């Protein structure tokens, strides 16, 4: 069953997943339906992204995991195409990913495990902001979040950044994307 049609930008969510073999669940991207949107969620425990895509057709499905490397490989295929077609679409199914225009089908055999409950994590953040206190963020993660949102800006409009208390994460968000960047410990 086809779940959602993605574009090249949506596939970048996979780059936010963990690269650590010791944490296999975090090497996956969670795909779930919330209200009328499909959410792609990835984290490496330092940065978390929740990116929403509006499906072309309404459907019911159970949340499932997709190996992040599958999304990354599809993005690489689209980036290496001679014509670099921004309009080329990727169909995400529950057990495979397909790029019909170039005849590519990639199996999505993922873990049979539960993804961390990110809603509790996001709801548990101290959102109080004290402008007198500084927030120290990892520049690599901050740049990654800003880069993703900058490229999504072309699709979705404005980007907001909220810096929280010193030991709370920074939040980057647009209408369809939420990125949480954990602070460095002082």
Written overview of the protein:
Strand 2 and strand 3 (37-43) form a beta hairpin. The chain contains four helices and eleven strands; from the N terminus they run E-H-E-E-E-E-H-E-E-E-H-H-E-E-E. The chain is globular. It has 186 residues and is an alpha+beta fold. Helices cover 22% and strands 29% of the residues. The mean pLDDT is 77. The longest helix has 18 residues, at 139-156. It has two domains: 1-112, Roll (DNA Polymerase III, Chain A, domain 2); 125-186, no CATH class. The strands form two sheets. It has a seven-stranded antiparallel β-sheet with strand order 5-2-3-4-11-10-9. A four-stranded antiparallel β-sheet has the order 1-6-7-8. It has helices spanning 8-11, 68-80, 118-123, 139-156, and strands spanning 2-6, 28-34, 37-43, 47-53, 64-67, 90-93, 96-99, 104-107, 160-162, 170-173, 177-181.
Highlighted features:
alpha+beta; DNA Polymerase III, Chain A, domain 2; 4 helices; 2 domains; single chain; 186 residues; four-stranded antiparallel beta sheet; 29% strand
